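Suppose a classmate hands you a notebook page containing two proteins, each written out with its sequence and a corresponding row of structure tokens. How would you begin to make sense of it? This section walks through that situation. The first entry is reproduced here exactly as it would appear on such a page.
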Amino acid sequence: MRVGRRFTTTGIRTDHVVCDICETRIKPCGGWDSSTVNVGARLGEVFPEGDFRTVYEVDICPKCFTDKVIPAVESLGCKFRQRDAEDSTDEYYQRIVEAES
């Protein structure tokens, strides 16, 4: 959940973000702890005239993602893939293909 503060007569600036599950304040990235969680989807169509997708997103802290979201999604039969952040996606999938050969 985005918690905002009015900063002009025309808009609201996000002051901080709260986890939608446990309602604790999510620390901004910085220093050595750079954990981020991005859960969402953009569903619909994109044309030259514009982007007609609907955006679905939630704010989840790293602890709730690890302790609650991963087990819930895996209970549906999905398996999360893990890779080092420095691995490019192409290199990661190439290693999987080679391991399966």
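The notebook's second entry, a different protein, reads as follows.
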Amino acid sequence: MTKKIWAVEALRKKYDTLWSTTQMMLQAIESHPGTGVEIQRYVKRLMSAAIKDRDLMLVRKMAGRSKDIRVVGYCQHCHINLYGSGKPSSSAMPCGMEGCPHE
């Protein structure tokens, strides 16, 4: 594969990821059960993660099934959600992944 084709493929993958994340964010905002102020906070947190932090994995975790803006990060090893001071929920532990720093 030539460098040019490889570069185009890499760009296409980035675009696809960004597009699917944007679609997920829009669906999450449309289906959010909260009031106007709660939805504004939710949108602000999603956009902060997407633009300022540039962390699409975090956006996907916040806009996914749970729509939980309390998520402040995720474990790089096992990908469980981290809350508040960077700790996982007690219900998510133990994760069962060997070498997880939160075990």
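A careful reader of the second entry would note: Residues 3-30 form the longest helix (28 residues).
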